[in-house]
Each structure stands twice: as C-alpha cells, then as structure tokens.
Design goal:
The protein has about 250 residues and is of the alpha/beta class. The chain has a single domain (about 10-190, about 225-245), classed as NAD(P)-binding Rossmann-like Domain (Rossmann fold, 3-Layer(aba) Sandwich), CATH 3.40.50.720. It is about 45% helix and about 15% strand. The protein is built from eight helices and seven strands, in the order βαβαβαβαβααβααβ. The chain has helices at about 20-30, 45-60, 75-90, 110-135, 150-155, 160-180, 205-210, 220-235; strands at about 10-15, 35-40, 65-70, 90-95, 135-145, 185-190, 245. α3 packs parallel to α4 (about 110-135) and α4 runs parallel beside α6. It is globular. The termini are far apart. The relative contact order is 0.14. The model has no long low-confidence stretch (mean pLDDT about 95).
C-alpha cells in the first residue's frame, strides 16, 4: 500500500528560501502540490535567487510560487509580509522558519554586533514569523523551525548561533502548547552538517574529523532535511508536536 502526501490547496511559507536547505524545502512542498511563498531578505543575490526558483516552480505549475521579501529580524517587515499573504492568498497553512545567519567567533572575541545580528535573525526572527504568522495561519496548520546540532553539541566559536538555536527549540515546545487549541502543531528540526554553500567552506581536515563522528559516514543533503519538514507538516505526523527531531546521521559527538 502506498502512502502519499498531498498538499494540494495548501500554502507554505518558507523563510530564507532563496538557496540551500530553504530552496529544497520549497521544491519538496511544491512537488507535494502546495503553493509556496519564497521569503528572502533582499540582500545580495537573494532576490534574484528567489525569483529564479519561483520561475522554475511556476514553469511546471503556473501560479504556484511567489516571492515575498522581508528581513525576518524586522518585525514590521514580517507583519507586512504576512498581511500581503493574507490579502493575496487568504493566509497560510504551513510556516517553515529556515532563515539563519552565522557570525562565528569565540566569546572573548565576539563583538556585540556579531552576537546581536545572529540572535536577531535566528531567534527573534522565528518569534516574529510565528507571532504574525499565527494571525494568518488556518486552523490545523503546522510550524517547523530550524534548530541545530550546534544547540546540542556546543561547537567552538558558536555561542551566538548555538544559543539562538537552543532558544528556537525551546520556543517550539512552548508554541506546541499555545497552538494546540487551534490544532496547530509546532516542531523543530536539529540538522547536522548539511552539504550547502556554507558547508563547502569547511576545511577538508575538519570535514574528515566530522565524518568520523557520523555513523552514516556522510554529511547530510538538503533533501534529507526537506523530507523531514514535509513529514512533520503532513497528517502522518498528526500526533507529533513540541518535539525536536535530530537529522544528523547519528552524530552524538
């Protein structure tokens, strides 16, 4: 017996969807039939990348993807983005909080700007999207937010990133209680090291040491994460909420 996930008629908002994991999540939801809203912060090439992805998806199913710009660290911009999605599409069914940045430095050397920048995007940005996203989310929806293995392992030089991601994972536990009366589930995913442009900067010697810690003996692929996001938003995970699901190939450090 086959099991299919059909999101036809559903709308998914993916933050940080212009590249990497976010882009793959958007593609995966689109393949499942959803209409996707591709958020980007309008910094550097993010607008062009998001528009290229929207063109790719609309090429297979016209009108099924749109681009929405907002820096998630800016609450007014997020509120305006949600108002636009409500006005133009009636609201959303799924929210995937994927947008994140890194500013690695030891605590002794980390500037206040580096601390605040990461917390503003990676933690406050999730709060902004959840707060204003709940206002336009239909009952029975689902929220999935990206935590990280960094919140569990405490990697050297990532105090800002690890603290923010740990906060996201805790926030989803709270939100799972607050959203339950509307049938809205909230979960986090804690990916390991995923093969993205960011991971490509890892020196080979460091990569080799990482692989020794991973029982599956490989880094993750964006699709590995996207598949779990799809599952957590689907009826197959209808009794799963308030959880952090590790997607790391078995890495325990």
């Amino acid at each position: 017996m086959s099991v299919a996930i059909d999101f036809s008629g559903k709308v998914a908002l993916v933050t940080g969807a212009s590249q990497g994991i976010g882009a793959q999540i958007a593609r995966t939801f689109h393949r499942a039939g959803a209409t996707v809203a591709l958020n980007h912060p309008d910094v550097g090439a993010t607008r062009a990348d998001a528009e290229a992805l929207a063109a790719e998806l609309n090429g297979t199913r016209p009108g099924s993807a749109r681009v929405v710009a907002a820096d998630v660290a800016d609450p007014a911009a997020v509120q305006a983005m949600m108002a636009t999605l409500k006005r133009d599409g009636g609201g959303i069914d799924f929210l995937v909080n994927n947008a994140a940045i890194i500013r690695d430095r030891t605590i002794a050397k980390m500037s206040l700007e580096e601390w605040n920048a990461v917390v503003d995007v990676n933690l406050s940005g999730v709060f902004h999207c959840c707060k204003f996203g709940l206002e336009i989310m239909r009952d029975g929806g689902a929220i999935v937010s990206m935590g990280s293995i960094a919140a569990i392992q405490g990697f050297y030089g990532q105090a800002n990133y690890a603290a923010a991601k740990a906060g996201v994972q805790a926030m989803m536990r709270v939100l799972s209680r607050e959203g339950a009366r509307r049938g809205i589930r909230a979960n986090a995913i804690a990916p390991g090291v995923i093969e993205t442009a960011m991971a490509a900067t890892i020196p080979e010697s460091v990569r080799a040491e990482m692989l020794k810690q991973i029982p599956l003996a490989r880094l993750g692929a964006p699709q590995d994460v996207a598949n779990v996001v799809l599952f957590l938003c689907s009826p197959l995970a209808g009794y799963v909420t308030g959880q952090t699901l590790e997607v790391n190939g078995g890495w325990r450090g």
